[in-house]
Amino acid sequence: MQKVLITGFEPFGGERVNPSWEVVKQLDQREVAGARVVARQLPCVFGEALTVLNAAIDESQPVLVLAVGQAGGRVDITLERVAINVDDARIPDNQGQQPIDQAIVQQGPAAYFSTLPIKAMVNALREAGIPASVSQTAGTYVCNHVMYGLLHRLAGQQAVKGGFIHIPYLPEQAAFHPGAPSMAAQTLLIALELAILVALQVEQDLKVAGGATH
């Protein structure tokens, strides 16, 4: 059975929970479109997050990798288009590291674009009544670090697609950030499962269409 790797982060920045892991862990071992979902938690630590991610890829050999992270203050689910080759931390990571203007991969490309069907995923979420949009920046913190590192790892591997999704605070977090938007865990869970489904279906449709032309 094909596998899908989905990752979330541990809490950071003084938060008691991270919505990405609280939701992602509920998808572990679910079957979506004939694929088994494998969920893994990443540390919110520069460098170490990619070590854990790469080990999870080696272990699961997925056809799709979907990294998920918290974006407190965003009003909807955002599909990231691009990751840039810069670590520039506004706050320290969970081990106190705070890189400024550092390359993630020395001599690496300036940026990588998501290989997920982000427009199709956004449209499917909106049709399901879930607010979603395409984002043009994954920031310069550990989320961008992971997205860039993931796409660098997958570069040239046409059979494996990957990208990043940012999600808002959970309501219990927003309660401590007056005025901040939030989204219920159940809605986020439905959204991520739908995102996986669409990504797998689009890839399958492309393979079928490609096969029909030969």
Overall shape: it is: globular
Written as H for each helix and E for each strand, in order along the chain, the element string is EHEEHEEEEHEHEHH
Radius of gyration from CA coordinates: 16 Å
Strand content: 15-25%
Terminal Cα separation, in Å?
Answer: 26 Å
Low-confidence stretches: none
Instruction: Say how many strands there are.
Output: 9
Q: What structural class is derived from the secondary structure elements?
A: alpha/beta
Strand order of the largest sheet: 2-3-1-4-9-5-8
Average of pLDDT: 95
Give the biggest sheet.
7 strands, mixed
Residue share in helices?
25-40%
How many H/I helical runs? 6
Commentary on this structure:
There is one protein chain. With 214 residues, the chain is an alpha/beta fold. It has 6 helices and 9 strands, in the order βαββαββββαβαβαα. β2 and β3 form a beta hairpin. It is globular.
Short summary:
The protein is an alpha/beta fold. It is built from 6 helices and 9 strands, in the order E-H-E-E-H-E-E-E-E-H-E-H-E-H-H. 35% of the residues lie in helices and 21% in strands.
Task: Provide tags for this entry.
single chain; alpha/beta; 214 residues; two-stranded antiparallel ribbon; 6 helices; 9 strands
Strand-helix topology:
Elements: E1 2-9, H1 19-24, E2 31-32, E3 35-42, H2 48-60, E4 64-70, E5 77-80, E6 82-84, E7 111-113, H3 118-127, E8 132-135, H4 142-154, E9 161-167, H5 171-174, H6 185-212
Parallel strand pairs: 1-3, 1-4, 4-9, 5-8
Antiparallel strand pairs: 2-3, 5-9, 6-7
